[in-house]
Design brief:
This protein is of the alpha+beta class. 33% of the residues lie in helices and 39% in strands. The protein contains three helices and seven strands; from the N terminus they run H-H-E-E-E-E-E-E-H-E.
């Protein structure tokens, strides 16, 4: 019986450490928070895919539409130390001695905003804002 429990724990650990699964968990967490906004004042769109200027598509995690403007929110579910600034092309994630290079999510989300502005070009007076929401679950 103990082996079954250990096997299940092992599988759950592997699944939850998947970047795709962690990303989905982070996005769902932000969706839950956004759903608390007043429905009369805010329209929330999650997981929106739109065409980009490169002829491909881009995926926006969350779009919030209100009288205050259009907010494009990129969600990241990282752990460890994240090093970088808004002008850097890449950031570095450090967990113990392991380093991973990540494309700057602020630049990524700026691209999302430009794609959405391009799609809504006939409404050029609309104010846009891009946000980064990082979920950090402690240091490993």
């Amino acid at each position: 019986m103990i082996w079954i429990v250990l096997a299940i724990m092992f599988v759950v650990t592997i699944v939850l450490s998947s970047p795709t699964i962690k990303g989905m968990i982070g996005e769902k967490s932000v969706t839950n928070q956004l759903n608390k906004l007043d429905k009369e004042k805010y329209v929330i769109l999650n997981d929106v895919t739109i065409p980009s200027s490169s002829g491909k598509t881009t995926q926006l995690d969350h779009v919030v539409i209100s009288t205050y403007g259009i907010f494009v929110i990129e969600t990241k579910n990282y752990r460890g130390w994240i090093v970088g600034d808004e002008k850097s092309e890449y950031w570095t994630q450090v967990i113990y001695k392991r380093k991973e290079r990540l494309y700057n999510p602020l630049r990524q989300n700026y691209g999302h905003v430009m794609a959405l502005k391009g799609l809504l070009s006939e409404y050029s007076e609309l104010p846009f804002s891009y946000q980064l929401y990082v979920l950090a679950f402690g240091l490993i």
